[in-house]
């Protein structure tokens, strides 16, 4: 009897957990090649891309609206390993990019002019990137954000930067120069690990 009670209790706990997880999982919608969810503020977050990787995409343009919802975020892993993407255009409405969102793509340049929040490793291992544009309002370089950008030679951080996360530029083996703005308060461990070509790091006076 005791074993039956224990079994029933365990079953109820498992069913309760499964129900709770199901309740929290947002509905995923599809519009064209894009998958998205709706956020609490009524805007959309793109979570996936239903694209045939055999077809090369010279430039991926993220829409500013999808099914009449404003796109404000790119979700975690949304475009990871989409190696057919060579260029990326983000709309002004997107201000958040999730973890590993574009890692291991074939993107050659990054313009994050309107983005303010980027999660860790979002642009990791973009081996073709040579240039990065960050807005003046950008405050935090997250952990591993630009790690393994092996062709990146120079980065000028905007004056608004306050912190550089751990591994932020690790293994950027072509990086030769870094200019650190006056507002930076912390630099994480291994931020420039294995940057073997680094010749100068310019700090404010």
DSSP summary: helix tally:
1
Describe the sheet with the most strands: 7 strands, mixed
The arrangement of helices and strands along the chain is HEEEEEEEEEEEEEEEEE
Please state the CA-atom Rg, rounded to the nearest Å: 21 Å
- Tell me the quaternary state: single chain
Distance between the termini: 76 Å
- Please state the overall shape, judged from the principal axes of the Cα atoms: globular
SS-derived structural category: alpha/beta
Number of strands: 17
| Residue share in β-strands | 15-25%
| Model regions low in confidence, pLDDT < 50 over at least 5 residues | none
Query: Averaging pLDDT over every residue, what do you get?
Result: 88
Helix content: 10-25%
Model description:
There is one protein chain. The protein is α/β, with parallel strands linked by helices and 205 residues long. It is globular. The model has no long low-confidence stretch (mean pLDDT 88). The protein contains one helix and 17 strands. Strand 1 and strand 2 form a beta hairpin.
Structure characteristics:
11% helix, 205 residues, alpha/beta, 25% strand, single chain, 7-stranded mixed β-sheet
Question: Layout of SSEs?
Answer:
Blueprint: H1 2-24, E1 29-31, E2 34-38, E3 44-49, E4 60-61, E5 65-66, E6 69-74, E7 88-89, E8 96-97, E9 109-111, E10 117-118, E11 131-133, E12 140-141, E13 154-156, E14 163-164, E15 177-179, E16 186-187, E17 200-202
Parallel strand pairs: 3-6, 4-7, 6-8, 8-10, 9-11, 12-14, 13-15, 14-16, 15-17
Antiparallel strand pairs: 1-2, 2-3, 5-6
